[in-house]
Design brief:
The structure holds two protein chains of two kinds.
Chain A (H helix, E strand, L loop, with lengths): L8 E4 L5 E6 L10 E6 L6 E4 L13 E6 L2 E6 L8 E9 L4 E4 L3 E5 L1
Chain B lengths: L2 E5 L3 E2 L5 E8 L9 E7 L6 E7 L4 E3 L7 E6 L4 E6 L8 E8 L13 E5 L2
Parallel strand pairs in B: 2-10
Antiparallel strand pairs in B: 1-3, 3-8, 4-5, 4-9, 5-6, 7-8, 9-10
The chains are: A mainly beta, B mainly beta.
Chain lengths: ~110, ~120
């Protein structure tokens, strides 16, 4: 049971816009910044979004993050086949004094 | 360019102590705001943060594993070591190390990971 709650799956067709939600609490998302990671099949996770809505160098602007209260969202526009991956949200939790992850969302491009 | 690589045994017996080493390059763990974390992922399951050590030797542990984990650093060797005592088959996972910079709580980049199987 993960501290942050994500839908287990999401899907879309090429070119579509999809969003993945991440629900937390006042001790994590509600009081700290949110980060998102992309894990392609058989590879290590890669930072996709940090500090709620910042993209590391090299991440396309098709990926964007937002936060409202104790929830966060990852949006992917212009969906491409190479976006098929697992996506994880994460945040610092003040009560647990550590990083908490969501359970992950598997994105399928139909 | 920052790189990290995990190393350790691929197979460990139940009740033994697992020792993993993260060897990194491209940054110094004596620089303010820098930290190295360990994260694991059981086969087919989600990521789980285990421990984090910072440039000032501050250490944080997952509350559920705190009494089994020890994280240490050797700045001169550019290494971070994680020891996990009394391992169990449920500890079978791919173990990753990753760096956090600029006093941030995000990890970038990650090592390639090392699969550890706990079995008799």
């Amino acid at each position: 049971q993960s501290v942050l709650t994500q839908p287990p799956s999401a899907s879309g067709t090429p070119g579509q816009r999809v969003t993945i939600s991440c629900s937390g609490s006042s001790s994590n998302i509600g009081s700290n910044t949110e980060n998102w990671y992309q894990q392609l099949p058989g590879t290590a996770p890669k930072l996709l979004i940090y500090s709620n809505n910042q993209r590391p160098s090299g991440v396309p602007d098709r990926f964007s993050g937002s936060k409202s209260g104790t929830s966060a969202s990852l949006a992917i526009t212009g969906l491409q086949s190479e976006d098929e991956a697992d996506y994880y949200c994460a945040a610092w939790d003040d009560s647990l004094n550590g990083v908490v992850f969501g359970g992950g969302t598997r994105l399928t491009v139909l | 360019q920052i790189t990290l690589k995990e190393s350790g045994p691929a197979l460990v017996k139940p009740t033994q102590t697992l020792t993993l080493t993260c060897t990194f390059s491209g940054f110094s763990l004596s620089t303010g705001g820098v930290g190295v974390a360990w994260i694991r992922q059981p086969p087919g399951k989600a990521l789980e943060w285990l421990a984090h050590i910072y440039w000032d030797d501050d250490r944080r542990y997952s509350p559920s594993l705190r009494n089994r984990l020890t994280i240490t650093k050797d700045t001169s060797k550019n290494q971070v070591v994680l020891a996990m005592t009394n391992v169990d088959p449920v500890d079978t996972a791919t173990y990753y190390c990753a760096v956090s910079l600029y006093y941030g709580n995000w990890f970038d980049p990650w090592g390639q990971g090392t699969l550890v199987t706990v079995s008799s």
